Amino acid sequence: MKQKKISGLNMIQASTRRWWPLFLGPVVAAFIIGFVWPFIQGIYLSFCQFKLIADAKPIGIGNYVRAFKDASFTHAFWYTTLYTVVSLVLINVLAFAVAYALTQNIKGSNLFRTVFFMPNLIGGIVLGHIWSMIFDGILSKFSTSIVMDSKYGFWGLVILMCWQQIGYMMIIYIAGLQAVPEDMIEAARIDGATKAQTLFKVTIPNVMPSITICMFLSLTNGFKLFDQNLALTAGQPILTQPGGTAIKTTEMLALNIFTTYNNSSANAHGTAQAKAVIFFILVAGLGLAQLAYTRKKEVQQ
Question: How do strand 238-240 and strand 57-58 relate by DSSP bridges?
Answer without folding.
Answer: unpaired
